[in-house]
Design goal:
The complex is a heterodimer. Chain A is built from 13 helices and no strands. By secondary structure, chain A is mainly α. Chain A has a domain at about 100-285: MetI-like (MetI-like fold), CATH 1.10.3720. By secondary structure, chain B is an alpha+beta fold. Chain B has a domain at about 270-470: Dipeptide-binding Protein, Domain 3 (Dipeptide-binding Protein, domain 3, Roll), CATH 3.10.105. Helix content of chain B is about 25%, strand content about 20%. Chain B is built from 13 helices and 20 strands. In chain B, the strands form five sheets. In chain B, strands 8-9-10-1-11-18-12 form a seven-stranded mixed sheet. Chain B has a five-stranded mixed sheet with strand order 15-14-16-13-17. A four-stranded antiparallel sheet of chain B has the order 4-5-7-6, covered by helices on one side. The longest helix of chain B is centred in the C-terminal third of the chain and has 18 residues, at about 445-460. Chain B is globular, with a radius of gyration of 24 Å. The chains are: A mainly alpha, B alpha+beta. Chains A and B meet through helix 2, helix 3, helix 5, helix 7 and helix 11 of A and helix 1, helix 5 and helix 11 of B.
């Protein structure tokens, strides 16, 4: 019975995932078309003649109907072809793939670091929540949430790169990960910056989940069997603390990507976030559309995965859906 | 560190505050230029494509024009037109025939440059299906032909005194006949070869050791693109970048100037920061109202407040480096009392309301509140509205649906835009239009200069717009660097003269 439940649960989630993708792609497409401005003008600038603009609109297919444009784009996108950038003439799929070699490691490393910081600190703050050090740890996380990422980044970059000159202020090695030493050096400050903000958020949840556990009957029973607080927590608390941390991490995925855009700009990292900001400025709509489609798919995919993992960790989630 | 916590509120202040002890001192005054040097230029905006025949935008010619691609003629840092791929040229007395004798040159791929390349490149511009953003500059071209392999003849429909100057810009670049993949690679004839474009990060140029003229001083020149001004400053301060080619927050300059490790280089530009007043607006159509607005603004104080005193006051749409410049700031002096009197005479003793549209760029944002406060003193209630570039181009520039806006017009010799009544200024003075046409067809430079001078004066007399200031070209270099282009008068950032000591 339980395994059937899991399959039904998984199938439902998959359906939800696919329909979210279709709806979001249509939304992104139409919203971007609603923006004021003309793509041909963005490329040719303000001195262009009307004939040159008309020629270009025809070349770009902008004179076709919106539905036709959307269908062309979607049918190609489903085959993994996001088209050719109007402005740079570059293949959008391969450019996103190339930039992902910077952004994906950044986000993954920052998430891991954030979890590694937040769970022990959150549990510590929970255990000592009536003591000064517990309160201080908890206050520190509030501080971490309140400080804007760009500011943390600037401060860290100023200290480590300008004052102490131990790590680069920004950029990424021209040869990428084939220079692993330099690549990791370039990543260190951005990963730390990104993890700091995320870790602070996750820590709040780890703390309240642990406090919650401390007050449960089963915890009292565990203590009654002779386990110390720490031993009992290790046995029954970590899994309970992990549930909110993972679901929050899933929900935070979108925030994490937004913050990655900021961090990439502060540290001049040539990743997806920096590219997106540039393309928005340049009104390279097709590329913006491609990047948003890919990132929203990732966000949806991660929350799909998180749902599955939670369903696995916590039987109540399976039942309630 | 604890003591400076109070200063952390403004990151840039913190950053520059720390420079003094951050950078070890060294003295490079006696060293000689290193021919194998790699020079890294810190630049804010990256090209969207390398194809300067189909894409507008200053970042493309900045890196490619005169460095990788060349035109028949070139404009120097002093603003003088000199022969380039043409070793000499003659213009017929009616101004309708240009004959260019070509230099012996080779493309970077090794092939020989001939007149066929020029004809192919220029016929691409005039073709019916052309999408060249500057096609209008070739509107007077009748034919481009090649009597022999080293001669090109261009005939014009009408005399066009701007044509030779226009040829120095990106429209004039000569591609290899049949060139493809223009968006991602570049095969030119210039002193530097295009080597690599690391999208989102940098473009690398390598010295062309077979160049026919004066060769580049450094072996490698890297244009490093960092959009965030603070990140760009940090890259410079930590030594990743040798030249800060743009300073977007001028208040930072005094810190650089105070440090003897660095040198601030201040030059001039063609960029008139223009506050356009829609001449079709119900209030602004009256020249008295426009003059009242100009006289309500203390331009010297504005330059100090908005741009740390680095700009130049200009009284019309002419930069001081143009031959037809004259100081016209006296025609609209700062005079609040007279401004009020003008508004009363125009029938608005109690003022009125206007919206000032601000695109997302430093000089506009920095000036907006000063202007709002200045106009409040004479009773004009200004609402500041921030707009994105897409909307700015569509609603304001194309449809002229606005009251006032601020933008810098960076194109050289662009005074003729006031001759187009459909331009977003909606300025319509038939006399100015006639002078501009006559200037384009004038037989001598002196005649042309005299006519354009009249235009400049008339624009100021009519208060066609307000010209807030001329943007300075401020750069910061380390003491190892010499030979950077000081002024920004053309479209290129010429790198062949830049040297770096060991």
């Amino acid at each position: 019975m339980a395994s059937v439940n899991i399959i039904v649960f998984g199938a439902r989630r998959l359906l939800l995932f696919i329909s979210s993708l279709v709806v979001s792609s249509a939304l992104v497409f139409s919203l971007l078309r609603l923006l004021p401005g003309d793509l041909a003008q963005a490329k040719l600038g303000i001195q262009a003649t009307p004939e040159a603009l008309a020629n270009l609109r025809h070349e770009m297919g902008l004179d076709k109907s919106l539905v036709a444009q959307y269908w062309t784009w979607l049918s190609h996108a489903l085959r993994g072809d996001l088209g050719i950038s109007y402005l740079s003439g570059a293949n959008i799929t391969s450019e996103i793939a190339q930039k992902a070699t910077v952004t994906v490691p950044l986000v993954i490393m920052a998430s891991i670091l954030a979890v590694l910081i937040s769970i022990p600190l959150g549990m510590y703050a929970a255990l000592r929540y009536r003591n000064m050090d517990g309160v201080a740890t908890s206050a520190m996380s509030q501080f971490g949430i309140a400080i804007p990422t760009f500011w943390t980044g600037l401060l860290i970059s100023t200290l480590f790169a300008v004052v102490w000159q131990v790590l680069p202020a920004g950029g990424f090695p021209e040869a990428g990960w084939s220079e692993p030493g330099n690549a990791f050096k370039s990543m260190a400050l951005p990963v730390f910056t990104l993890a700091l903000g995320q870790g602070a958020v996750l820590m709040r949840f780890a703390r309240s989940a642990t406090i919650d556990t401390l007050q449960q009957d089963y915890f009292r029973t565990a203590r009654a069997t002779g386990l110390t607080k720490v031993q009992a927590l290790r046995k029954h608390g970590v899994r309970n603390a992990l549930i909110p941390v993972i679901s929050v991490l899933g929900m935070q995925m979108a925030t994490l990507i937004v913050e990655a855009i900021i961090v990439e700009n502060v540290f001049a990292l040539p990743g997806i976030g920096q590219m997106l900001l540039q393309d928005v400025n340049n009104r390279d709509l097709l590329k913006v559309q491609g990047i948003i489609a890919v990132t929203t798919s990732i966000v949806f995919f991660v929350s799909f995965l998180v749902d599955l993992v939670l369903g696995f960790l916590d039987p109540r989630v399976r039942q309630s859906s | 560190m604890k003591k400076s916590i109070g200063r952390l509120l403004i990151p840039t202040v913190l950053i520059v505050g720390l420079i003094s002890f951050a950078i070890p001192q060294s003295n490079a005054a006696t060293a000689v230029a290193d021919p194998n040097a790699t020079i890294t230029l810190g630049v804010d905006l990256e090209p969207t494509s390398l194809d300067l025949t189909s894409t507008a935008g200053a970042p493309i010619p900045q890196v490619l024009l005169d460095n990788v691609y060349e035109s028949l003629v070139r404009i120097t840092d002093k603003g003088v037109i000199v022969p380039n791929l043409a070793k000499s040229y003659t213009i017929s007395s009616d101004g309708k025939t240009y004959t260019f004798k070509l230099a012996a040159a080779k493309f970077h791929d090794g092939s020989t440059f001939t007149s066929a390349d020029v004809v192919w490149s220029y016929q691409r511009i005039t073709a019916a299906d052309s999408t060249n953003p500057f096609k209008a500059q070739f509107a007077n071209v009748d034919s481009v032909s090649a009597p022999d392999a080293s001669t090109v003849v261009i005939t014009m429909k009408n005399r066009d005194n701007s044509f030779l100057f226009n040829l120095t810009g990106q429209i004039g670049v000569v591609l290899k006949k049949g060139a493809t993949n223009l968006a991602s690679t570049a095969n030119g004839t210039g002193p530097y070869k295009f080597s690599k474009w690391n999208r989102g990060s940098s473009i690398t140029l390598l010295r062309n050791d077979k160049y026919r003229g004066v060769k580049g001083k450094a072996k490698t020149v890297v244009f490093k693109y960092i959009a965030d001004p603070n990140a760009l400053n940090n890259a410079f301060l930590s030594g990743q970048v040798d030249v800060l080619t743009t300073v977007q927050a001028p208040e930072i300059l005094k810190f650089f100037a105070a440090n003897d490790k660095f040198k601030v280089v201040a030059g001039t530009t063609n960029a008139e920061v223009t506050m356009s007043m829609n001449n079709e607006n119900q209030y602004l159509k009256d020249p008295k109202v426009r003059l009242a607005i100009r006289e309500a603004i203390d331009h010297k104080a504005l330059i100090k407040t908005a741009w740390s005193g680095y700009g130049t006051a200009i009284g019309s749409f002419v930069p001081p480096t143009d031959p037809w410049y004259e100081d016209l700031t006296g025609l609209a002096p700062y005079d609040v009392a007279n401004s009020k009197a003008l508004l009363t005479a125009a029938g608005y003793p109690n003022g009125f309301k206007l919206t000032l549209e601000i695109p997302p760029i430093g000089y506009a944002t920095a000036s907006s509140e000063f202007i709002q406060a200045s106009l409040k003193k004479v009773g004009i209630d200004v609402t500041i509205n921030n707009v994105g570039w897409g909307e700015w181009i569509d609603r304001i520039f194309t449809k002229a649906n606005y009251d006032m806006t601020i933008v810098a017009h960076v194109e050289p010799h662009d005074i003729a835009i006031y001759g187009n009544p459909q331009y977003y200024f909606r300025y319509n003075n038939p006399q100015v239009q006639a002078w501009l046409k006559a200037a384009d067809e004038a037989a001598t430079d002196a005649e042309r200069t005299a006519l354009l001078k009249k235009v400049g004066r008339q624009l100021a007399t009519d208060s066609a717009s307000d010209w807030l200031f001329l943007l300075p070209n401020t750069q910061v270099i380390t003491k190892k660097i010499s030979g950077i282009p000081t002024n920004s008068l053309g479209m290129s950032y010429y790198v062949a003269s830049i040297a770096k000591t060991k």
